């Protein structure tokens, strides 16, 4: 297997199809292998002892055979780049988020991909979920595929245009640095957007975006568009930009001008994920702290 695979985590539900479709598209963009993983419960010592006494197969008891079959179905027909492979792993673990992150660290992942579920009325978009834990603990970028992107599970996804929010900070700019390092990312169409509430701020934002666009073009990117959005609600303005330019992916940092103390929950990033109908690639707090 090549270094730094793109890893899709699935759980046996309908969410898995969209996670795999998006992960395959990211793998093609990165020229990486695709690894699809699922975490299953670890049978307790008591249940293992009972299985041994009864002559039962513990792989049936903990669902491993079913998981193997579901993963085989999930990757059927999935294609990545030349000389890249698609593999699967079923891993036992009692802490799903920690097991996912541990697997990613062991494989030195390039990106982790998870599909999120629709929030209940009393919940936030990803608060308290496995995705939230993975976001907090992963040292690698995480792509969240929201329920609104369920249609991607029935098609082969192609990433041609990416929207990259900026705010003038070095942390936000790191998202561009990450993308441009992907082997096939120079072929993307980039749309850079910055939100500014006043005319003076909009002038500064335009200058910064023009500089970033020139930086991308100097590195071989042929298509770069910049948008300065006049608004005070940053997440809503990013959502409006999505509806205006129709990107296939949003890529952004989970912290920006708010400083190192600004984490995923309660940030602009959460608002973007909550309202998005396309995948969102996020540079995680742990990655940005490195």
Describe the structure in your own words.
By secondary structure, the protein is an alpha/beta fold. The chain has 2 domains: 6-149, Rossmann fold (3-Layer(aba) Sandwich); 161-289, Rossmann fold, CATH 3.40.50.620. The protein contains 11 helices and 10 strands.
Offer a few descriptive terms.
290 residues, Rossmann fold, 2 domains, 11 helices, 10 strands, 40% helix, 20% strand, elongated
Q: Concise description?
A:
This protein has two domains: 6-149, Rossmann fold (3-Layer(aba) Sandwich), CATH 3.40.50.620; 161-289, 3-Layer(aba) Sandwich (Rossmann fold).
Percent of sequence in beta strands: 15-25%
Order of helices and strands: EHEHHHEHEHEEHEHEHEHEH
Q: If you compute it from the alpha carbons, what radius of gyration comes out, rounded to the nearest whole angstrom?
A: 20 Å
Task: Round the mean pLDDT to the nearest integer and report it.
Answer: 86
Largest sheet: number of strands, sense, barrel closure: 10 strands, mixed
Strand line-up in the sheet with most strands: 3-2-1-4-5-10-9-6-7-8
Coarse morphology: elongated
Question: What would the CATH topology of the largest domain be?
Answer: Rossmann fold
Report the strand count: 10
Q: What is the helix content? A: 40-55%
CATH-defined superfamily of the largest domain: HUPs
Intertermini distance: 26 Å
Overall number of structural domains? 2
What is the count of helical runs? Answer: 11
Helix/strand class: alpha/beta
The CATH architecture of the largest domain can be given as: 3-Layer(aba) Sandwich
| CATH class designation of the largest domain | Alpha Beta
Unreliable spans are 121-127, 258-266
């Amino acid at each position: 297997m090549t270094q730094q695979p793109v890893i899709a985590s699935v759980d046996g539900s309908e969410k898995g199809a969209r996670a795999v479709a998006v992960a395959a598209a990211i793998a093609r963009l990165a020229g990486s292998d695709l690894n699809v993983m699922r975490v299953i419960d670890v049978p307790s010592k008591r249940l293992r002892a009972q299985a041994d006494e009864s002559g039962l197969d513990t792989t049936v008891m903990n669902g491993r055979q079913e998981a193997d079959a579901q993963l085989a179905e999930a990757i059927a027909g999935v294609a990545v780049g030349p000389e890249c492979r698609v593999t699967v792993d079923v891993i036992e673990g009692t802490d799903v988020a920690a097991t996912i992150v541990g697997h990613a660290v062991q494989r030195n992942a390039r990106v982790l991909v998870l599909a999120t579920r629709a929030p209940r009325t009393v919940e936030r978009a990803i608060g308290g979920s496995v995705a939230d834990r993975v976001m907090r603990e992963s040292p690698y970028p995480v792509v969240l595929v929201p329920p609104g992107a369920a249609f991607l599970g029935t098609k082969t996804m192609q990433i041609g245009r990416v929207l990259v929010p900026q705010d003038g900070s070095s942390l936000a700019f790191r998202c561009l640095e990450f993308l441009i390092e992907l082997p096939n990312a120079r072929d993307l169409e980039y749309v850079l957007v910055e939100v500014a509430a006043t005319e003076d701020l909009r002038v500064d934002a335009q200058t910064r975006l023009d500089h970033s666009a020139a930086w991308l073009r100097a590195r071989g990117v042929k298509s770069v568009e910049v948008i300065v959005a006049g608004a005070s609600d940053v997440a809503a303005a990013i959502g409006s930009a999505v509806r205006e330019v129709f990107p296939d992916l949003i890529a952004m940092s989970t912290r920006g001008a708010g400083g190192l103390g600004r984490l995923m929950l309660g940030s602009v990033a959460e608002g973007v994920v909550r309202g998005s109908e396309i995948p969102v690639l996020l540079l995680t707090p742990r990655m940005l702290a490195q």
